[in-house]
């Protein structure tokens, strides 16, 4: 009698197994091929793995990591869909809920069987992997720690996605909708960030992308993949997963207990969610339409077209799903779309008249503590430390530049020149703006800005790094030359700073003579973001290099050049020759020496100059001659 | 036993049931009649604890049914289209019921095997509709329910099987006071089984009667008087018709009273005629009768 009144119903369990046992078996077979079989196969090539042991644990490509990942996301969704299918079929829902079991009990029962059926194959494979580890010498493939991590990561992902999918299942009355919505919601938040960000970008002049960017993905799928790629789960991440599982478990239970069973076979089972679903889908499709038609075309008409088409398609799809017929052409539905249109137009209007003073906002000089200004925002965001200057002259000219940029830019036009500004305000706030402008339109302001020390402090930030943090300075000229003597590095950086800070904007746009690149390698994080160009006009630096006798090593010298080729257009020199274009080829050291002194940067000249540094005909540096710098023998040749 | 009081049910703005009240006594068989769409199935699903009413109370043995394991353990709901788990045989389904219902009687199950003559190990999905229904009766009756709720239970059954099953139900009612609620769109199908009848029309209960009372209270008489005197005013006449000098009357009241009244007026002819249940309903319902005719076909 005891068993009959107990909470645990054996037959309910059995039924679950008969219903979804196959998911368990498929998962087991899949994992069995991915892990033990794969490993036994690779035992044949054990020599290779002795030399190059697998570093990525049991999620590595050798263990079909990507396929495992697909299983990891697909199996729990399948499990949730089939286990709770009875909720979505009227007859089955009636039957199950006429049984002498409470809804709560049914829910817990199915949840537990789902989790057990999902974890059983995982743990079985885990045990097999441990046994294999004791039977064979497979430590080149994985260690017991890897098995533990594999178990933890797989279980956590599988169970959390299962619970989430069940939660979605309680919201809907159609199993297909459950599967599709689970998929969508697993990447929903990340997707919304992208969609909203893209749309603000074309709607708001000055909108900076970094304002709406995620530091960490909010998608369980992307987090899951990251987890198995990095072979690591942080404690904080685990807490988030566990809390998420508990929250969605309880939410699902709550909805399950109160949902009306009549909603079986309806797309949305909670009546109050229907308008949210309808207008939510409409909104998302509208944003998507905005991204598709609004970016790249630079036309507000096409953007609006994208919104109208997107919103209409979204509204139609959502309505069709809700009423379950495509014949939805009624006044009532038209009214719904019209109401949506009015609300969105109002919102759109508010943005257009800058009701939130976003586009017109320029901070006052006295409110700004520090500023970053440059082309792309990634230089600012990628930096570990804050890359800003407090130089008042820079702040003032930045504000001028900002005002000019507001006047001359528009979010939807084709100008490619980017300007990114980050203000750190006195009150602790940070304000970001990003513009795309026509370079000529901001030329005056930009030049003024360039000539401030603060700007160069930011722009040539690699010159301000403390020498004690630098492992070495590397030149890539003739051959790679590096400095690691602290004194020398200090002197070199000092000289470079002097040259760079003295250089005016116009000077910065011009170079003559061969150049070289210097990059910094930091002690703790390797290569620094970008390298700096050393020009012949950098008096202090060049003198120092000559004094120390490094000049010939870091710059190309006539003796280093085997052959020089000059052409009247720019392309790969071999292509030019093959196409029968006139190419001047010379080994004359006098000519080469003259060229080394007179060449300009690659983009500025009439004639392309190719300096081949060795007999290897693929190693060459490219420069150019401007019309006035070109030697007579070049001009004569191409006459 | 079953007390349904002032039930309202609406779903998505649609009013399905409106202020439905009726009671079924322990050990009685109640027939719930109504045309298609009257709300019978919804009402039964609520009584079975599947759906929740919007307003009102449904009590079985003075307890609310919804989410009540005890009550549901002693009650079986047989839907108009029986449901079985995919790929299950009768035996597997019976095992499931045995685990779920505390009063399951294995001996009864074995005994009923002879009545139904089905292969208990064959998959239920391969049975015909009628066989599936038999199997569902077999399993349901073996669970020894105190309350048996049946939605259009005789669809798809042949006459012999119908009789057998009715017999089984009556037997359980007689032997252990099982309470039965049967819905049907056809009065004739249940009139030999039910002792009470309720009519549900467009979500409302139109009338509720005990069949024995009904038959005792309404009479069809043929009467003719010598002169053109009017019919006695004391009679509660539901329906009248005149053929020549003969009146054909449907009269409400006790038979003895009616006879006494008639005798006082010295009729030339006075006969009592047989009255079918159908006629009683049609005449009783008066204006609403047209809607009811459907049920009586």
Question: Would you kindly provide a written description of the structure presented here, covering whatever features stand out?
Answer:
With 639 residues, chain A is of the alpha+beta class. Chain A folds into five domains: 2-191 and 215-263, no CATH class; 273-352, no CATH class; 365-459, no CATH class; 463-554, no CATH class; 558-637, no CATH class. In chain A, 56% of the residues lie in helices and 11% in strands. Chain A has 25 helices and twelve strands. Chain A has helices spanning 2-5, 10-42, 46-51, 65-83, 90-98, 103-135, 144-171, 175-186, 188-203, 220-230, 235-258, 273-294, 300-323, 331-352, 377-381, 392-408, 443-450, 453-459, 486-502, 505-508, 539-548, 551-554, 573-578, 589-598, 632-637, and strands at 368-374, 417-425, 430-437, 470-476, 480-483, 516-522, 526-527, 532-534, 563-567, 583-586, 607-612, 620-625. In chain A, strands 4, 5, 6, 7 and 8 form a five-stranded antiparallel beta sheet that branches. In chain A, strands 10-9-11-12 form a four-stranded antiparallel beta sheet. A three-stranded antiparallel beta sheet of chain A has the order 1-2-3. In chain A, a hairpin with a 7-residue loop joins strand 11 (607-612) and strand 12. In chain A, helix 4 packs antiparallel against helix 6 (103-135), helix 9 (188-203) packs across helix 12 (273-294) and helix 16 runs antiparallel to helix 17. The longest helix of chain A has 33 residues, at 10-42. Chain A is globular. By secondary structure, chain B is an alpha/beta fold. Chain B folds into two domains: 2-202, 3-Layer(aba) Sandwich (Rossmann fold); 213-296, Alpha-Beta Plaits (2-Layer Sandwich). Chain B has eleven helices and 14 strands. Chain B has helices at residues 40-47, 69-73, 90-100, 106-116, 129-142, 159-176, 187-191, 211-217, 255-264, 277-285, 289-296, and strands at 2-11, 14-24, 29-33, 55-60, 63-64, 75-78, 147-151, 179-184, 196-201, 204-210, 218-224, 236-243, 246-252, 269-273. In chain B, the strands form three sheets. Chain B has a six-stranded mixed beta sheet with strand order 6-7-8-3-9-10, sandwiched between helices. Chain B has a four-stranded antiparallel beta sheet with strand order 2-1-4-5, covered by helices on one side.
